Amino acid sequence: MALKLFGVTVNDAHLISMSVPDTETIVVRDLAAVCSTAEYRAISADDDSAAAQNRVISILTARGPVLPAPIGVVFRSGESVERWLELHYGALTDALTFVENRVAARVHVFRQTVDDERTDMSTIAEECLRVLRTSAVATLPLRAEKLTGVIVSAAFLVEQDKWNDFVLDVDAQSKIALGLRFDLTGPWPPYDFVQMQLQA
Question: Is there a domain that residue 200 lies in?
Fold first, then answer.
């Protein structure tokens, strides 16, 4: 039977013993791939798949570092998952170390009024996000949807114990930047900061 990959976490006997419902764990040394049985075919990234992915990743994130897989990754067998873990062992281990005790935030900056097209608003918004970068471990620009009034968007990787400080920093920028509205979401698992090489 094929296996759908939810993510990779640490192989900790205590954590693994608290299994996630409807999943199984493939272990290679100190890595654990959390999977569920699936047909060996492409899986669409629909709302149900996203909800199932988020449910499992949220449980794993509450227990330790996790690298979320893209929705719809399916391996032919458990042996394929093991080979993949062995092949990318070093990169996966380093990535888990990097995201440990860190959470992701998304910040979207909007014009207060959608019909306000002043070009300097974009410059101000970019400067605000530049200031916020000093409060984060890593930052990733995101595509902004101009039709919704979003000027700029970015994802930030933040130390978990400094989350409240980051929230205050976003609030401070929102008070300084008149004419702009800041939408902060999170804390999230580090979806935006994980890229997996999926060749087995």
Answer: no
159 forms beta bridges with: 102
| Tens digits of residue pLDDT in 22-64 | 888 899 999 999 998 877 777 777 778 888 888 889 888 888 8
- Give the CA diameter of the chain: 57
Q: In this structure, are 44 and 74 located in the same domain? A: yes
The pTM for the full model equals 0.84
How many domains does the structure of the chain reveal? 2
Domain containing 28 equals: 2-100
Burial label for 186, CB within 10 Å (0-12, 13-18, 19+), is middle
- Domain presence at residue 199: no
Annotate the chain with three-state secondary structure.
CEEEEEEEEECCHHHHHCCCCCCEEEEECCEEEEEEEECCCCCCCCHHHHHHHHHHHHHHHCCCCEEECCCCCEECCHHHHHHHHHHCHHHHHHHHHHHCCEEEEEEEEEECCCCCCCHHHHHHHHHHHHHHHCCCCEEEEECCCHHHCEEEEEEEEEEHHHHHHHHHHHHHHHHHCCCEEEEEEEEECCHHHCCCCCCC
- Whether 118 and 28 map to the same domain: the answer is no
